[in-house]
Amino acid sequence: MPRTTFRTVHQNPHSPLSHRMISLPNPTSELMTMIDTRTSADGVPTELTNTQWLQRLPMRIQQKVQELVNEEGYPLDDIREFIESYGYNNFTSGYYEAWADLTDHYDNEAIEAFVEDNGIENIESFEDAYCGQYGDLREAVEMLLEIYEVDVPDFVVIDYERTWEANLRHDYTFEGGFLFNRNF
To answer: What is the structure's pLDDT at 26?
Structure first.
């Protein structure tokens, strides 16, 4: 069902009906391709059910989805979310399975932060790059100073943000509270 926009058409001002609404299709709306033509009791469009969504998939994708759900036990909702976010090619390239395996051991938000910064095609490098979660940049810099065995006397005041900007940001990223090594 194409999306409609409304345009007011003015008629003769002496006419009893001074406005008339005309529906025009909006061919640029991709959102409507994911909305079922059915509506709820209050007239709000409802999303496609998983069955309807599966039926609209290309056959090769549909077969892989069914294999992962039926034989491997992956949740259909997670697969659907992945495909809608990253597309068919990334799904068939095995990146979904890599993502799903990582979620067994790591916070999903950390994986999302890594993918946002490095791209889904690098998801298999997540474990090599992941350095942990920190409350703020200061905590991350302090941890890095410990790793590099930098002994800073108590009377020295460190500008953590300038230390990050001048030296550490070239080798690390700090995204959403998660620290990643760029040299994976």
So the answer is: 43
